[in-house]
Recover the amino acids of this structure.
């Protein structure tokens, strides 16, 4: 399928502000901003990336609201000249840099609005990414609700039937009788529950959310990065156009995302992995990949979130006890924690690590 998949979507009049002018930071200002971002990434204990169409333009896939974006040209009565097929698109420097940062432990999670499957192709594992608008290379069963990676880009958009039988098995070992559908959202669709919940959970635990190549106009996903603010965290936006969320961000960078990520990785001393076509889950010779978010996966993240809150409360309580100016007396002998309680608190540390 052509990378201009928008032709398959339902008509929709209001597509947000389009055709905004591009803005570039001066070289000196850009250098200082990237140095600051690098320090924040080094100090961060929980970084989450939020990615939009702007990180895929260097792969030959058009964005939506830039000067030559799909919706911008549509407003002018034109269509983008796209000769690239989704099957031929390869992950960009930014995709591979993000994957490398996750592998090295600098980043915990990725929330993507993109349907191009390039995070999947980069080798990013399922437990590290939410695809809130779907993926051209995934299919979901209408019966067992499992998701699978397709070897080629699906032929439909809008969560339509693909006329492919589900590959899954029932608890009894029998073949699932369900049919696979594409996962691409149309305008009227709600965001997938599991993807949205994981996006919010990880962003609420984040102390640094980095938004790359997104105009942050689509609700409600544009508000998710700012959950980090509730955690006293920071929000960074890198986009070539100004966004309505800039005033709420702690740092706004105007440059090409590939240039930003190359500089950032150089400062961090992290090598950017090369794209490996053989390990690409969409490779025709690779095994079938299960792309399902299971309930147990959600429970694990919910538990981590609960334990994070408990740990913060514990540290806050300890800080009050250790601060003589707080007016709080240190506990006497009969107030010392019992071994069982100490053990539970230590377990919280282990889970978070």
């Amino acid at each position: 399928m052509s990378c201009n998949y928008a032709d398959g979507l339902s008509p929709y009049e209001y597509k947000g502000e389009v055709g905004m002018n591009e803005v570039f930071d001066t070289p000196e200002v850009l250098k200082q901003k990237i140095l600051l971002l690098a320090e924040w990434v080094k100090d961060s204990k929980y970084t989450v990336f939020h990615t939009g169409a702007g990180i895929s333009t260097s792969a030959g896939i058009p964005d939506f609201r830039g000067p030559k974006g799909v919706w911008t040209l549509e407003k002018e009565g034109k269509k983008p000249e796209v000769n690239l097929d989704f099957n031929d698109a390869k992950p960009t420097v930014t995709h591979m840099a993000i994957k490398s940062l996750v592998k090295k432990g600098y980043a915990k999670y990725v929330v993507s609005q993109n349907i191009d499957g390039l995070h999947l192709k980069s080798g990013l594992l399922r437990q590290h990414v939410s695809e809130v608008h779907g993926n051209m290379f995934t299919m979901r069963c209408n019966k067992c609700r499992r998701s699978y990676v397709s070897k080629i880009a699906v032929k439909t958009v809008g969560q339509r039937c693909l006329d492919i039988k589900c590959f899954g098995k029932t608890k009894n070992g029998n073949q699932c009788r369900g049919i696979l559908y594409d996962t691409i959202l149309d305008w009227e669709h709600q965001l997938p529950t599991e993807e949205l919940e994981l996006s919010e959970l990880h962003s609420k635990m984040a102390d640094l959310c980095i938004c790359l190549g997104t105009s942050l106009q689509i609700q409600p996903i544009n508000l998710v990065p700012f959950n980090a603010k509730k955690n006293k965290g920071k929000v960074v936006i890198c986009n070539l156009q100004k966004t309505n969320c800039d005033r709420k961000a702690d740092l706004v960078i105007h440059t090409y995302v590939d240039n930003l990520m190359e500089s950032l990785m150089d400062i961090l001393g992290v090598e950017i992995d090369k794209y490996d076509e053989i390990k690409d889950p969409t490779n025709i010779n690779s095994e079938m990949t299960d792309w399902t978010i299971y309930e147990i996966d959600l429970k694990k993240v919910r538990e981590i979130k609960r334990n994070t809150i408990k740990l913060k409360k514990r540290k806050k309580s300890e800080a009050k006890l250790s601060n003589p100016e707080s007016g709080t007396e240190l506990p006497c002998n009969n107030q010392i924690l019992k071994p069982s309680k100490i053990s539970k608190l230590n377990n919280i540390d282990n889970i978070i690590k």
